[in-house]
Design brief:
Protein name: tRNA threonylcarbamoyladenosine biosynthesis protein TsaB
CATH class of the largest domain: Alpha Beta
CATH superfamily of the largest domain: ATPase, nucleotide binding domain
Distance between the termini: 58 Å
CATH architecture of the largest domain: 2-Layer Sandwich
Largest sheet: 5 strands, mixed
Strand content: 25-35%
CATH topology of the largest domain: Nucleotidyltransferase, domain 5
Low-confidence stretches: 224-228
InterPro entries: ATPase_NBD (IPR043129), Gcp-like_dom (IPR000905), T6A_TsaB (IPR022496)
Structural class: alpha/beta
Length: 239
């Protein structure tokens, strides 16, 4: 299991799915909390973060990094996580000029590590429900204590996702699409904040932490809603 360095003080949270997950590592222990995500995340995330920091006896400016689920996932959820992370980091600049660095964590990587944490998997096809009859997917292998991603993220129909021999499907896509998805049901896990804490040392060592102004969500689907003009054009072109 990837372990959190005992010297690191980290905050992590994810709002990319219908579940909200928050965790804090104070250097010696991990505290976690969860709740409903979706539309409620924008109002409950910050109080949950502040409560866990209070329990840990940590001030924001004492953190070594703030990790957040950058995507793929719900557009609204990704924007919520990124904006809260940026706000927290900017807020620390009053006492820490450079601010607390932010660590964007791919949600599919968190899914892969959660699958390894609960089921010992080392070859994972991480897949999350992307709605609109599609899934977000990524292939991950755990080698020599580190995760390696094979290829880039995919956005595709459930039937088009291949699960190679020796690999295991993990995430929430199996529950959403059932028999339409190869390898379903697989291992039902979510991109939890505790998984982000476990992968944080690897990502920090790779230099992937960024200042608040450079932190961005990672969208895989470029667009969900059509403009009024686009809908009118499609209607006019219809036979």
């Amino acid at each position: 299991m990837l372990s959190v360095s005992p010297s690191l003080r980290l905050l992590a949270f994810d709002t990319s799915t219908e579940s909200l997950s928050v965790a804090v590592c104070d250097g010696a222990r991990v505290l976690e909390s969860s709740g409903p995500g979706g539309a409620q995340a924008s109002s409950t995330l910050l109080p949950m973060v502040l409560d866990l920091l209070h329990q840990a006896g940590l001030a924001l400016a004492q953190l070594d990094a703030i990790a957040f689920g950058c995507g793929p996932g719900s557009f609204t959820g990704l924007r919520t996580a990124c904006s809260v992370a940026q706000g927290l980091a900017f807020g620390t600049r009053a006492t820490r000029p450079e601010g607390v660095p932010l660590l964007p964590v791919d949600t599919l990587l968190a899914v892969a590590d959660e699958a390894r944490h609960v089921a010992g998997l080392t070859q994972v096809v991480a897949a999350l429900d992307a709605r609109m009859n599609e899934v977000y997917a990524g292939h991950y292998r755990f080698v020599d204590g580190h995760w390696l991603q094979e290829g880039d993220f995919d956005l595709l129909a459930p039937e088009a996702l291949a699960v190679p021999d020796g690999w295991t499907l993990a995430g929430n896509a199996g529950a959403a699409y059932g028999a339409r998805l190869a390898g379903a049901p697989g291992v039902a896990v979510l991109p939890l904040a505790t998984a982000m804490l476990r992968v944080a040392p690897q990502l920090l060592a790779a230099g992937l932490a960024v200042p608040a102004e450079q932190a961005l969500p990672r969208y895989v689907r470029n667009k969900v809603a059509k403009t009024t003009a686009e809908r009118m054009a499609e209607k006019a072109a219809a036979p």
